[in-house]
Amino acid sequence: RSACDDLYEPFFCGTSSTEGFYWTCHVARSLDRKRVYVHMQNSDGAGGYAVIWIFINGRYVRRVIEGPP
């Protein structure tokens, strides 16, 4: 719970009249396949932030936040 309880306005995907459906949450895996990064950009219109959750060998390790949550 502590990995996401204090985050505001989570935004996983949306639609655009010019682009159609799009994702704002992305997942990447390291070349050695040991680490997984989940990246999400969120905003409430007045301010935004990005958060990256880091998993190593399938276990949550930590998160990094850029901007105010």
Summarize the structure.
It is built from no helices and 6 strands. It is mainly β. The strands form 2 sheets. A 4-stranded antiparallel beta sheet has the order 3-4-5-6, with no helix packed on it. Strands 1-2 form a two-stranded antiparallel sheet.
Question: Would you write up a description of this structure?
Answer:
- The chain is an all-beta fold and 69 residues long.
- Helices cover 0% and strands 57% of the residues.
- It contains no helices and six strands.
- The chain has strands at 13-16, 20-23, 25-29, 35-43, 48-56, 59-66.
- It has a four-stranded antiparallel β-sheet with strand order 3-4-5-6, with no helix packed on it.
- A hairpin with a 5-residue loop joins strand 3 and strand 4 (35-43).
- The protein is flat.
- The model has no long low-confidence stretch (mean pLDDT 83).
Topology:
Elements: E1 13-16, E2 20-23, E3 25-29, E4 35-43, E5 48-56, E6 59-66
Antiparallel strand pairs: 1-2, 3-4, 4-5, 5-6
Order of helices and strands: EEEEEE
Q: Please tell me what the overall shape is.
A: flat
| CA distance, first residue to last residue | 15 Å
Q: Largest sheet, order of strands side by side?
A: 3-4-5-6
Detail the poorly predicted runs: none
- Which sheet architecture does the biggest sheet show? 4 strands, antiparallel
Helix content: under 10%
Please compute the radius of gyration using only Cα atoms.
13 Å
Main attributes of the structure:
single chain; 69 residues; four-stranded antiparallel β-sheet; two-stranded antiparallel sheet; 57% strand; flat
